[in-house]
Amino acid sequence: MAESLTFQALASSDHVLSSAENYILYILLEAIAGAAGADAGNGKGRLPLNLSVVVDRSGSMYDERRLEFVVEAVKFLADNVAPEDKVSVIAFADRAKLIIEPEQIHDRSAVRRALDDIDLLEIGGGTQMALGMQAAIEQVNRNHSPQRLNRVLVLTDGQTYQESACLDLATQYREAMSFSTMGVGVEFNEKLLMRIAQESNGKYHFIGEPSEIPSIFEDELQGLRAVTIRNGRMEVTLSQGVQVREAFRASPEIYALGTPLVDERKVTFQIGDLEAGVPGSVLLTLVLPPRKPGPVRISRNVLYYEVPGVGERSTTCDVTVEYTLDRTLTSKRNGRVMNLVDQVSIAKLQAKAEEELKAGNVDRATRLLSNAIQGTERLGNVKATQALSGLMDQIKQTQTLQTKAAKTTLLQAQAVVRKTQMLDPEALKELQKPD
User: Fold this and answer.
1) What's the pLDDT score for residue 164?
2) Could you tell me where in the chain the CATH 3.40.50.410 domains are found?
């Protein structure tokens, strides 16, 4: 197939001040996949699914009709699979049990019987999520293929035993499949679910109300249907003396990529599968060494990716800047890059405020949130402003995150702040003005 994909590397400024000091430069690496052609993969414009759904059936899932909504969501999934799709369902508590085999998903009556009887399963009442994940991995491996979208979808509402085993499974199998996670209510470990999704290039969903479960399943299914590029990874070769200070995934969600491991001036970032029209991007904070005036290539950037039915491809772009003594030139900023720098900064402020609050530093937490709110107001991000303002009001009232209302508000704020905001043209114009 003739794939449609763009890959670009943008610097926060095309000019760098030539001085005796190091210089901070932001680099945005962005890949955008186009829509699949009619000849993609299976000949129908999309990849077939190889999906295993892992459902928490512990005792708490009966609260607020959570299990009812899960059953409704899986029935929706069964009603919308294509003939070539393979979808299994695992229920877990103290034990894990396969309740719908991959081939059964096309038998609607069998699916409904299995789901209607889910509360009769003799699997205990605890939460052993690692057992559910392991059973799902086995089912995905049964039909594993590079010509399929191989994913595990985990839904839970509580804390699990053996958290490290869950993360180990996601890390061990991330080359073969991705893991998307859904947390319902406020009792689950959001850090664990986020890490599982991030480490495997899946998605994390916070579900505040059980009634949202079917729509979240629908969103996940639509996202899978939209994937046109597989297993993207960015390889950055830095010029002599250039260092990476920070690396963040910048879209479609914002999160830290940890301390980059630079090997012979090369660093690699996995970005996973790309949905058509949804940017997959990484934001780097680079430290540039002092140099004399003149053009310098900062990095060579290669995107490796797989086209279904074709194989691996790659595309390359460089970042070159001009060292100069003219401060007027260095004050000009790329609006798109600086917009994402601001969004990442706001996410960092929110995360830091959460840490301070857990440490009992309420005043420091509110100051950090106030700075984050000023940033969202400047960007015109109304939803994030409302979410962070609500969180700050809860903190002022309760002085803690231990109440249900405070924890719910926190999880809602996390979800909104982590979602990359689409750029506002007027905000871009403002950011492009010289300092």
Assistant:
1) 95
2) 49-225
